[in-house]
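Quick one: structure tokens for this chain, please?
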Amino acid sequence: MNIACFGYGKTTRAIAKRLGSCTFFDDKVTKPFVDEEGNTLQPISEFDSRNFTHEIPSPGFPPSHPLIQKATHLISEYDFFAPQMPFSIWISGTNGKTTTTQMMEHLLSDKGAISGGNIGTPLADMSSDAPIWILETSSFSMHYNQIAKPNIYALLPITPDHVSWHGSMEAYFDAKLKPLSMMKEGEAIILPKMFADVPTNGFKILYENENDLAEYFGFDTSKIKFKGAFLMDAMIAMGIDKILYDRIDYDRINAFILDPHRQEEFRDAHERLWINDSKATNIDATLACLRTYSDHPIHLVLGGDDKGVELEELFIPLKQYDVSVYAIGSNALRLEALCQQYNIPCTLCHTLDVAVEQINHKHNLRSIAMLSPAAASLDQFTSYAQRGNLFKELVSAV
């Protein structure tokens, strides 16, 4: 077995560490060299598919990449480890994947379940002795899958995202729905109603909102502490627990602690409420945050790398809120133009420090100030976490 790894990232390096030295092809490599673990790194121009039996791409490699175009033995990370994958639960969707996966692992920790995939642990680092794998699974990963499939698949709501990677919304939807074509009778699929007609041999549990999930599984939502988008995350995790072990444990789910940067509430020295929702990197996540605080006037920091999506899908529902926009990031001018088009108050700030300064002059005890950018962070930051931490630091100084 002679393996070529596309991209010198966490996923492929874990594969090399497990299997022995591999050959890496990476866009950043200009001259061949050998790393401290004995792996050979080469420029992508040196790739010749005839020299390899397997070519495993990092999840972020789009179909248009030259290495993908030249590959003749391409296999996804999931397919490569499919023969040793135990009972698996896959969590996907545009938003909420990480939280739902974490909640799922929290609920099933007494059953020995472990989590991985996009959530941080590559499949190469996961133990095949664990009885259950819970995998946060992106559309990138599923695009290349031909063999691997879940035993239970939970698809959270999906909205426009990663259009530039997939090439179209249809291709993005197709990647998210790919597992359905491989699932077997008796295997459960928690699925948005908009995909009710997609054929599968699995058993569909259809939902449109939290009420549908509560009715199907018999949940009392008043006993669940989470609200907004987190309520749906919690009920999908609880639903899988109910499917597998026929139990509903409100105390256990309520003991789960959310990660920072998702609807993270904090107050400044004047007791005004601010929301750090920096992880809202797409439209649907921002709309979910807005729905949670819809009863208040909102000062909303928007902007960053919008990944080429149609922002009209944000601005049409935005009109129903008492909202003022503070535009930052690489798409700030585009946001300003859309605010003018939809008659929404907008302050052109370009950077986060200016936005916080401007909001500080107008924010009061009745209003909500939130960073919920509907865009990725990499135009101005190293990550959404850095963006969120800076937001909190700036607010603490007002």
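The first strand starts at residue 3 and ends at 6.
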